[in-house]
Specification:
Number of strands: 12
Helix content: 10-25%
Shape: globular
Structural class: alpha+beta
Distance between the termini: 21 Å
Oligomer: single chain
Radius of gyration: 19 Å
Length: 307
């Protein structure tokens, strides 16, 4: 793979405070610094631990969800520092697509250090503040291309968010409605080693599961939220795709995901997986849908390699 010449950072912070990436646990902050290149473009540095308690990786490769989470953390970081979005505003995903290069995801002796080049477009403003924008991300590891991502999200002041969410707006009350999560499917079925990290529960139909909202999970539910988090839905897509591909292990390399509606705690959320033509015997493509009350709330096409 080609080595890409990187520009020098003009002024990079030595650390990223947890609240800048909407985390409580500082150990879960993957971003280490940022710098503005132009009003609509930035360089963000990231550091992945060699091992992670949840994003553990497989086959000697880092978990691709580390890349997704790094991109997710860029949303609030750059919203607050680059576009003056207040900390009490809510960021809502619309879509996220990303892909990684497996050869650049190898686990080595120390942490993986990345540079994320972020360009913003389709910036919509309301009353002088950013209301929505699109991120285009190119990730480099030691100057080598690691992955790309594109995402769009909207930004809502507290008053607007409360009107949008209605009775579901209170995160603490919503968590109570989630109740105790149902029993998980066998961890090996979804590529997990620990049942506590399984986000799918069995249902009465083959190829369909129920989403588990375990609000006590230390990574997926780092802080109170009023709906199923986006990273939980992505993890559900990954686990459903793994189950759909059969007993052999698969390594996800790409996701094309759309967040259609909020996934609520007080209604069962059903997850289905349907294999799609891949055009290559070494690759799998799986369409994953999450629905509540007969309406889709999330969709993703997962591309994975057999390992």
């Amino acid at each position: 793979m080609p080595v890409v010449e990187q520009p020098a950072l003009a002024s990079v912070e030595s650390a990223v405070p947890a609240r800048y990436v909407h985390k409580r646990d500082a150990a879960e902050v993957l971003l280490t610094g940022w710098s503005g290149l132009r009003p609509d473009s930035f360089i963000v540095s990231a550091r992945w631990p060699r091992t992670h308690r949840f994003y553990a990786g497989q086959a000697g490769l880092h978990d691709p969800m580390l890349f997704a989470e790094s991109v997710r953390q860029c949303f609030p970081l750059l919203s607050h520092t680059g576009f003056d979005v207040p900390f009490d505003h809510h960021l809502v995903w619309q879509y996220l697509s990303f892909e990684v290069v497996p050869t650049a995801m190898a686990v080595e002796d120390g942490p993986a250090v990345l540079d994320l080049f972020v360009t913003c477009s389709d910036i919509r403003r309301s009353r002088g503040r950013v209301a929505a924008l699109t991120f285009h991300v190119v990730g480099l590891r030691d100057g080598v291309h690691l992955g790309t991502a594109q995402a769009r999200f909207s930004v809502h002041p507290p008053s607007v968010y409360r009107r949008l969410r209605g009775p579901h707006a209170d995160a603490h009350r919503a968590a109570v409605t989630a109740g105790r999560p149902p029993a998980p499917v066998p961890a090996a079925l979804v590529g997990r080693a620990d049942a506590r990290d399984v986000v799918l529960s069995p249902s009465d139909r083959a190829g369909r599961w129920t989403l588990r909202n375990d609000t006590a999970h230390p990574v997926l539910f780092d802080h109170p939220v009023d709906h199923s988090p986006g990273m939980l839905l992505l993890e559900a897509a990954r686990q459903a795709a793994h189950a759909a591909c059969g007993p052999r292990g698969v390594y996800p390399v790409g996701f094309e995901s759309t967040f259609l509606q909020f996934a609520e705690f007080d209604t069962p959320c059903h997850v289905t997986a349907q294999p799609l033509p891949a055009g290559d015997a070494s690759r799998h493509r799986v369409e994953v849908l999450a629905s509540q009350g007969g309406r889709n709330v999330f969709s993703s096409v997962v591309t994975a390699l057999a390992v």
